[in-house]
Amino acid sequence: MGTLAAHRRRLLRALAVLVALGGLVLGVLWLLQRQLIYFPDTAPVPPAASVLEGGRDITLHTEDGLDLDAWFAPPRPAAGEDDRDLAVLVAPGNGGNRLSRAGFAEELTRRGFSVLLLDYRGYGGNPGSPTEEGLLHDALAATDALDGLGFPPERTIYFGESLGTGVVAALQDQRPPAGVVLRSPFPELAAVGSHHYPWLPVRLLLRDRFPVVEHLATSDVPVTVVYGDRDSIVPTGLSAEVADEAPALVERVVIEGADHNDPVMFGPRVADAVARLADRVG
Questions:
Q1: What average pLDDT score do residues 26-37 get?
Q2: Which of 6, 111, 168, 278 is the most buried (most CB within 10 A)?
Q3: How far apart are CA 117 and CA 103, in angstroms?
Q4: 58: how many CB neighbours lie within 10 A of its CB?
Q5: Coil, strand, or helix at residue 279?
Q6: CA-to-CA distance for 158 and 135, rounded, in angstroms?
Q7: What CATH number should be reported for the domain whose range is 41-281?
Q8: Which of 111-115, 170-174, 195-199 bottoms out in mean pLDDT, i.e. has the lowest?
């Protein structure tokens, strides 16, 4: 009898230790989760004019008091293209900075677009730390800047890349644009986390939700969805779900053989999808 009781006590102590360790791990993950979401390149970037023809540095002023550096590039239409009198606001993913999107900006300017390359707080030498709410403030400040440059939301296409799809989905809810392009989107960020960490209660832990489908549910803004069919970061099925749920879907572009950060995902085929949407709405 005593042996059985002692065994039970040891078992209960072991369970208590496991519960405590599990709680500790979850607590650490909750505290550090934003370090697992945002991977900013904090290095200062060169002047826009040294990278983009006609480019210039601009400053965005956020509602919560931050001054953020960004790049603006005017249209440089290639042969056979015209100045569209439309801007593209590029909201990037969770890594790098605006320098790594310069090639994509050039693709857009060749197609007659003006382009604003946004760097969020904490990225590209900007002050602050990224959060879901903060990134929306940054995007709102970008629309203010574009408005001052002659491109109100109705003359702007919002382009969101990966995490940026969550940013522009929320942005279009507040300031409807001419159109939205979602590149490698997810229904909500928790769906991506649950795919990569199925053993964690991601939805319970996650503070930054980025609910793309929820923001699009009642929107009549024309939407194009672009994704690769070999995406190892945002599973293809999640991007397909966004396209399925978008009420005003104009086009679904599936790039065969493409992973999340392959060069093709920043190249002419994606820029062409932006141009086709502009043809529909412009």
A1: 49
A2: 168
A3: 11
A4: 18
A5: helix
A6: 14
A7: 3.40.50.1820
A8: 195-199
Question: How many other CB atoms are found less than 10 A from the CB of residue 73?
Answer: 25
Place of tokens 């969805």: 225
Question: Residues 155, 133: contact at Cβ < 8 Å?
Answer: no
User: Residue 152: exposed, middle, or buried by beta-carbon count in 10 A (0-12, 13-18, 19+)?
Assistant: middle
| Domain ranges, ordered by start, for the chain | 1-37, 41-281
249 close to 217: Cβ distance less than 8 angstroms: no
Nearest to 277 by CA among 218, 215, 225: 225
For residue 61, the surrounding DSSP H or E stretch is strand 56-61
Place of tokens 């397909």: 240
Which tokens belong to 43? 């290095």
What whole-number distance in Å separates Cα of residue 46 and Cα of residue 90? Answer: 18
What's this model's pTM, rounded to 2 decimal places?
Answer: 0.88
In single-letter form, the type of residue at position 171 comes to L
> Considering only CA atoms, which of 140, 7, 20, 5 is closest in space to residue 68?
140
Q: How far is CA 126 from CA 5, 63, 69, 99, 137, in A?
A: 61, 15, 6, 13, 14
- Using DSSP bridges, classify how beta strands 114-117 and 67-73 pair: parallel, antiparallel or unpaired: antiparallel
